[in-house]
Specification:
By secondary structure, this protein is α+β, with helices and mostly antiparallel strands. 30% of the residues lie in helices and 14% in strands. It has one domain. The protein starts with 24 loop residues before the first strand and ends with a helix.
């Protein structure tokens, strides 16, 4: 959480000032089950996300590459073209929209 400044790395939500610390979830970038002992403890293998972005990341809708850039998962791009509500949500993430 400290590495991310107490903010969601995807949308910038900072719940600290209003006491909403539970609105952020700590997540491994490389899954725990696939990580070595060193990677599991490496602070660079972690990110903080709000619940919506945590689920989007966990289900593979959005991904993070080796240079920590956020992308819409390629297989999901056609779905975005067909789903008006999901596309509107993704449009709030300008860094991700460059993939579409």
């Amino acid at each position: 959480m400290t590495n991310c400044g107490g903010r969601c790395v995807f949308c910038g939500l900072n719940p600290g000032p209003f006491g909403g610390k539970r609105m952020l979830v700590a997540r491994h970038i490389k899954p725990w089950k696939d990580s070595t002992s060193t990677e599991r403890l490496d602070l660079r293998n972690g990110l903080a996300a709000c619940p919506s972005h945590d689920v989007a990341f966990d289900t593979g809708l959005i991904t993070v590459d080796a240079s920590l850039q956020v992308h819409v998962s390629r297989p999901q791009v056609p779905r975005l073209a067909q789903d008006q509500h999901l596309r509107r949500l993704i449009q709030r993430w300008p860094r991700i929209m460059s993939d579409l």
